[in-house]
């Protein structure tokens, strides 16, 4: 047996014990790629990434919130949030302004253009969320969301469907 064959056999023995379709890490990664692909299919014509959309929603729900707080709400690191918000500001979707209480703090607001963008995207965003759940029953979708929130230790104050 040649050296490549021995190595191949050893690698096969190790990896043969690993079932990718039973690996939570692998399934979550694939789920993320599936979600991003569905986002592009449903919302790709709007020139706004899924991260930008999540940030736009978080800012809309929390007008005047700090850049740091919004980043924490959506679980993005400081550098990613800062870069993404800069791009969103250049597109005219948000306004970043220095806090009147603390000059070190940047506060965020959705602009009129950002609001119009959100209005235009509503039907497609609804279709996107429906498409993600299309292969699940309503009960399965509720259970999946509940289990993901549990895994991520996210508290929900009101029942979420």
UniProtKB/TrEMBL annotation:
InterPro entries: HTH_MarR-typ, WH-like_DNA-bd_sf, WH_DNA-bd_sf
Keywords tagged on the record: DNA-binding, Transcription, Transcription regulation
Domain HTH marR-type intervals: 17-153
UniProt KW DNA-binding keyword: yes
GO function terms (MF aspect): DNA binding; DNA-binding transcription factor activity
Protein's recorded name: MarR family transcriptional regulator
């Amino acid at each position: 047996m040649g050296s490549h064959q021995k190595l191949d056999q050893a690698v096969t023995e190790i990896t043969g014990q690993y079932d990718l379709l039973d690996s939570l890490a692998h399934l979550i990664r694939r789920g993320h790629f599936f979600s991003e692909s569905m986002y592009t299919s449903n919302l790709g014509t709007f020139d706004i990434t899924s991260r930008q959309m999540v940030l736009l929603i978080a800012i809309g729900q929390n007008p005047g919130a700090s850049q740091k707080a919004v980043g924490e709400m959506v679980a993005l690191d400081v550098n990613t949030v800062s870069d993404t918000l800069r791009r969103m500001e250049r597109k005219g979707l948000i306004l970043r302004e220095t806090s009147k209480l603390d000059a070190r703090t940047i506060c965020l607001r959705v602009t009129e253009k950002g609001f119009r963008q959100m209005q235009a995207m509503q039907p497609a965003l609804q279709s996107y969320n429906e498409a993600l759940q299309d292969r699940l029953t309503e009960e399965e979708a509720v259970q999946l969301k509940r289990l993901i929130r549990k895994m991520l230790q996210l508290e929900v104050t009101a029942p979420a469907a």
